[in-house]
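Homework help board

Subject: predicted structure for assignment chain

Our instructor gave us this sequence and asked us to write out the predicted structure in token form, then describe one feature. I got the tokens but I'm not sure how to describe them. Can anyone check?
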Amino acid sequence: MTGALGDSSLGFIIDRVDVGILVVTENLEVVLWNRFMEANSKVSTESIVGNNLLESFPDLPGKWLEKKVRSVQLLKNFAFTSWQQRPYLFHFKHHRPITGGVTHMYQNCTFIPFEGSDGESLVCITLFDVTDTAISHQEVQQAHADLEELSHRDPLTGIYNRRFMEAELDKEFKRVARYGGKLSVLFLDLDFFKKVNDTYGHQAGDQVLIEVTQRINDIVRTTDYLARYGGEEFAIILPETDTTGGLIFANRIREVIEKTPVHFGEHVIPVTASLGLSEYCEGVESYDALLDQSDQALYMAKKQGRNRVVCFLPDM
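My token output:
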């Protein structure tokens, strides 16, 4: 079975090691095919030795493999490809009952040039099953991603927090300042929220914040950013939205909040909100200035009687 290698003891070891081993010529004719390759490919040694590898496995990355084999032979140097660079060379099934969505065997591959017993230039390709390592690595990466996402979220409502919102607003502000476009910012504050806490308790207040958040989330677009700015105050970044569109959006939110009181135990808690809207225009120096304009508009909404939307005007 060892073909050009011609050593039965070596063949015995090669067949029993839990690593895929195949040897090919410069033209990718298969010289050796061990039992690992047989078991995972379902292709027998007898049917593939002497045949072209790419003809037997047309799904292989042919151009890449030919280039890799030739460069290894030319430079007479060892080469390595990790699963992170290329998840697998051969599409083999994995052998794990629990895989976290993995559908194939991850492989590390080595390419080793050597000379056969007849002087022919050969390349030994080895495949190491590193599926467990890949799964563990991906789980760690996902855990880091989840932790990072949680760091951007408000723990009570699940929406973005102030820090993340300001970072995204800074990006949006720089975008429109440089390339043009529209950008509006909306501040929302629940009216007389302290009275809710004092009358019904802080758990009721939390329930109000959670349900109001859900109602706003039902209205916002996927391109908008909703954040809890602090306490009972929310901020919404509205990319590619001018004052006209922002007013329509803000009044939809105001009406939904007003028309759907929050039920807490046997209590029905009426809720209203005041909203301040500002739109980016030339001369606004920073995203902080844009936020300040929304805050001034919100202050005017409260001053004028609450439960209303006010747009920022220069004379404010």
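Reply (TA_rk): Your tokens look well-formed. For the description, you could write something like this. Confidence is low (pLDDT under 50) at residues 1-6. That's the kind of observation they're looking for.
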